[in-house]
Specification:
This protein is α/β, with parallel strands linked by helices and 303 residues long. 40% of the residues lie in helices and 17% in strands. The chain has a domain at 2-159 and 186-218 and 267-283: NAD(P)-binding Rossmann-like Domain (Rossmann fold, 3-Layer(aba) Sandwich). The strands form four sheets. It has a six-stranded parallel sheet with strand order 2-1-3-4-5-10, with helices on both faces. Helix 1 (12-21) links the parallel strand 1 and strand 2. Helix 3 (73-94) runs parallel beside helix 4 (126-141), helix 5 packs across helix 7 and helix 7 (223-238) packs across helix 9. The structure holds NADP nicotinamide-adenine-dinucleotide phosphate. NADP nicotinamide-adenine-dinucleotide phosphate binds next to helix 1 and strand 4.
């Protein structure tokens, strides 16, 4: 049995790991929420790792509020970098792998073809800068790491783009969504499944494929196209009488929709390296979106 210690129990990824773990009999997850371990307290991280003696550590915590980070740089740095540094120190001390999640927002979006892991990083905002600093801390401290850069994460849990758009579609006659930023929407259920699937491989003695990987589905789109896909699939699922079915989705530019943080206009990630090293990729976007909508349709409390 592989024992994995997960920091960040209540986030999208943490809850997705918990949901998917039932399919992986060989993995036992110990998920810690903020009460069990506040990652702002270095001793709390060390104590948790000493107590649970895991075979692998998964960091699902993060400061993910991209706009708020612009005015909360210190807190974002403490969660996205300083805490990660402590996890890496302790993973190294215990000789166990650390799986850490990062973001497409380490890129500035000037690229024209899917970003590879070796491409130049140049974050546009504080969130991306602190996530990059976290990556660098991990890389510096322990060779035994896997950094998975993912993007545009959605799920049945917490706050995310799919849930926001579903709500807006149901209460408005028209919504405006930016159509000049391209990325790869990623279901955290798929991300969780991929992580659980590789645990037996990465915890094996002699595993030699540590490093940084891009992990997203191979479908790129704009936020506006993503919104149209959500409306179309939700209408199929909930029926034509669903109030969101008739809402008009207007395409706008980023300039028409200013936000605190500047976002890359193109942050499509290439997954060639992950597929070559692990032999599989994430499922297609359509299937994953439907799965998340079906979970939401069950009407359980996924707040
Ligand atoms: N969301 C996206 O669109 C996106 C895109 C690209 C990459 N990523 C990366 O993917 C990973 C997972 O993201 P996500 O969407 O699952 O994030 P999320 O839903 O925002 O969850 C973040 C988790 O971090 C926890 N956390 C924050 N501060 C903490 C602290 N001081 N002590 C303990 N826990 C703390 C939160 O706890 P509480 O629940 O108690 O607040 C929450 O459970 C992150 O590394 C993120 O940077 C996300």
């Amino acid at each position: 049995m592989i024992r994995a210690l997960v920091f960040g129990r209540n986030g999208q990824l943490g809850r997705s790991l918990a949901m998917r773990s039932g399919d992986f009999a060989g993995v036992s997850l110990q998920l810690l929420d903020r009460n069990a371990c506040d990652v702002l307290q270095p001793t709390s991280i060390a104590r948790a790792i000493d107590l649970h003696r895991p075979d692998v550590i998964i960091n699902a915590t993060a400061y993910t509020a991209v706009d708020l980070a612009e005015n909360n740089g210190e807190l974002a740095q403490r969660i996205n970098c300083d805490a990660v540094r402590v996890m890496a120190d302790n993973a190294e001390r215990q000789s166990v792998p650390l799986i850490h999640i990062s973001t497409d927002y380490v890129f500035d979006g000037e690229g024209k073809t899917p970003y590879r892991e070796t491409d130049r990083v140049s974050p546009l905002g504080v969130y991306g800068q602190t996530k990059l600093a976290g990556e660098e801390a991990v890389q510096e401290i322990t060779e035994r790491h896997l950094i998975f850069r993912t993007s545009w994460v959605y799920s049945p849990f917490g706050k995310n783009f799919v849930k926001t758009i579903l709500r807006l579609l149901s209460v408005k006659n028209e919504i405006s969504v930016v159509n000049d930023q391209q990325g790869c929407p990623t279901s955290s259920l798929d991300l969780a499944e991929a992580i659980l699937r590789i645990l037996p491989i990465v915890t094996r003695t002699g595993f030699a494929k540590f490093g940084t990987y891009h992990l997203v589905p191979d479908t790129q789109m704009t936020w506006c196209q993503f919104s149209c896909a959500i409306q179309s699939e939700a209408t199929k699922l909930f029926g034509e009488k669903w109030p969101g079915a008739d809402c008009q989705i207007q395409a706008v530019t980023s300039a028409q929709f200013p936000t605190m943080a500047k976002r890359p206009s193109y942050s499509v990630l290439s997954t060639t390296k992950f597929k070559a090293n692990f032999g599989f990729g994430l499922p297609g976007f359509g299937h994953s979106l439907i799965e998340v909508l079906q979970n939401l349709a069950k009407g359980e409390d996924y707040a």
